[in-house]
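Researcher: Next entry in the queue.
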Amino acid sequence: MADTADLAGVRVMVIDDSNTIRRGAEVFLLQAGCSVILAEDGFDALAKIADHQPDMIFVDIVMPRLDGYQTCALIRKSPKFCATPVVMLSSKDGLFDRARGRMVGSNEYLTKPFTKASLLRAVAAHAAPRARA
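Model: Structure for this entry, 133 residues:
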């Protein structure tokens, strides 16, 4: 696994309707030095993406109002955020679910429950901190 010092300053958004999952991911990411933006669903996330400009996004698939597939597809359609890495989070581990995640443009697919190591490995693999102004 990459040295967690390499993750300092990376802005990570976690979109999940489960407070437990959001807070668990937040603890792991903060321990690694990331800054964390939390969103309860796709609508909440889309409102926050422009303000916070995350370096990468974790998105749950099964959420009310706007699911993870729809959220990822909308991020991919945005000229400003289309290149932002998106990692799907789901308790679904089927081939169809993984394929659908790829079809909407996700970079990776993590199954829940995830470990601290798998979460940080995904951040290290996909997010490079942007130059700070």
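Model: Helices lie at 19-31, 42-52, 68-77, 95-103, 116-126.
Researcher: Noted, moving on.
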